[in-house]
Amino acid sequence: MKLMDNTDREVIHLVRPFKCVSCWFPCCLQELEVQSPPGNTIGYIKQTWHPCLPKFSVQDVERETVLRIVGPCFACNCCGDINFE
Question: I want to staple 69 with a disulfide (CB 3.0 to 4.6 A). Which of 24, 56, 57, 83 is the partner?
Fold first, then answer.
Protein backbone atom coordinates (compact mmCIF):
# COMPACT_ATOMS: atom_id res chain seq x y z
CA MET A 1 0.00 0.00 0.00
CA LYS A 2 1.26 3.46 -0.83
CA LEU A 3 0.36 6.55 1.22
CA MET A 4 0.64 9.82 -0.69
CA ASP A 5 0.85 13.44 0.46
CA ASN A 6 -1.14 16.35 -1.01
CA THR A 7 1.32 16.70 -3.89
CA ASP A 8 0.83 13.02 -4.85
CA ARG A 9 4.29 12.08 -3.59
CA GLU A 10 4.65 8.69 -1.87
CA VAL A 11 5.64 9.27 1.77
CA ILE A 12 4.93 5.88 3.37
CA HIS A 13 5.06 2.43 1.81
CA LEU A 14 3.47 -0.55 3.64
CA VAL A 15 4.63 -4.06 2.73
CA ARG A 16 2.57 -7.07 3.81
CA PRO A 17 3.44 -10.47 2.34
CA PHE A 18 0.54 -12.84 1.76
CA LYS A 19 -0.03 -15.23 4.68
CA CYS A 20 -2.75 -17.68 5.61
CA VAL A 21 -5.19 -16.15 8.12
CA SER A 22 -6.19 -18.25 11.12
CA CYS A 23 -6.26 -17.32 14.80
CA TRP A 24 -5.77 -20.98 15.71
CA PHE A 25 -2.33 -21.25 14.10
CA PRO A 26 0.27 -18.93 15.71
CA CYS A 27 2.66 -19.68 12.83
CA CYS A 28 0.33 -17.75 10.46
CA LEU A 29 0.34 -14.38 12.24
CA GLN A 30 0.30 -11.24 10.11
CA GLU A 31 3.18 -8.78 9.86
CA LEU A 32 3.46 -5.42 8.10
CA GLU A 33 6.69 -3.58 7.25
CA VAL A 34 6.55 0.24 7.32
CA GLN A 35 8.92 2.16 5.02
CA SER A 36 9.45 5.93 4.90
CA PRO A 37 10.76 7.11 2.57
CA PRO A 38 9.96 4.08 0.39
CA GLY A 39 12.81 1.59 0.59
CA ASN A 40 13.89 2.69 4.10
CA THR A 41 12.35 0.45 6.80
CA ILE A 42 11.33 2.41 9.91
CA GLY A 43 9.33 -0.26 11.75
CA TYR A 44 6.89 -3.13 11.80
CA ILE A 45 3.39 -3.95 12.96
CA LYS A 46 3.16 -7.55 14.10
CA GLN A 47 0.09 -9.53 15.12
CA THR A 48 0.35 -11.03 18.61
CA TRP A 49 -1.37 -14.38 19.08
CA HIS A 50 -4.54 -14.44 21.14
CA PRO A 51 -7.52 -16.82 20.65
CA CYS A 52 -10.21 -14.10 20.95
CA LEU A 53 -8.75 -10.59 20.75
CA PRO A 54 -7.10 -8.83 17.81
CA LYS A 55 -3.71 -7.81 19.24
CA PHE A 56 -0.80 -6.07 17.52
CA SER A 57 2.66 -4.83 18.48
CA VAL A 58 4.10 -1.70 16.90
CA GLN A 59 7.86 -2.25 16.62
CA ASP A 60 10.78 -0.02 15.75
CA VAL A 61 13.39 -0.89 13.12
CA GLU A 62 15.26 -3.11 15.66
CA ARG A 63 11.98 -5.02 16.23
CA GLU A 64 11.61 -3.71 19.79
CA THR A 65 7.95 -3.24 20.77
CA VAL A 66 7.16 0.44 21.40
CA LEU A 67 3.33 0.29 21.41
CA ARG A 68 0.59 -2.32 21.74
CA ILE A 69 -2.82 -2.28 20.09
CA VAL A 70 -5.72 -4.34 21.48
CA GLY A 71 -9.11 -4.65 19.82
CA PRO A 72 -12.48 -5.77 21.13
CA CYS A 73 -13.44 -9.41 21.46
CA PHE A 74 -16.03 -9.12 18.70
CA ALA A 75 -14.59 -6.84 16.02
CA CYS A 76 -17.72 -6.83 13.88
CA ASN A 77 -19.87 -3.73 13.52
CA CYS A 78 -21.94 -3.10 10.40
CA CYS A 79 -21.50 0.45 9.13
CA GLY A 80 -19.85 1.65 12.34
CA ASP A 81 -16.49 2.26 13.97
CA ILE A 82 -14.58 -0.34 15.97
CA ASN A 83 -12.43 1.11 18.75
CA PHE A 84 -8.97 -0.29 19.51
CA GLU A 85 -6.99 0.62 22.64
Answer: 56
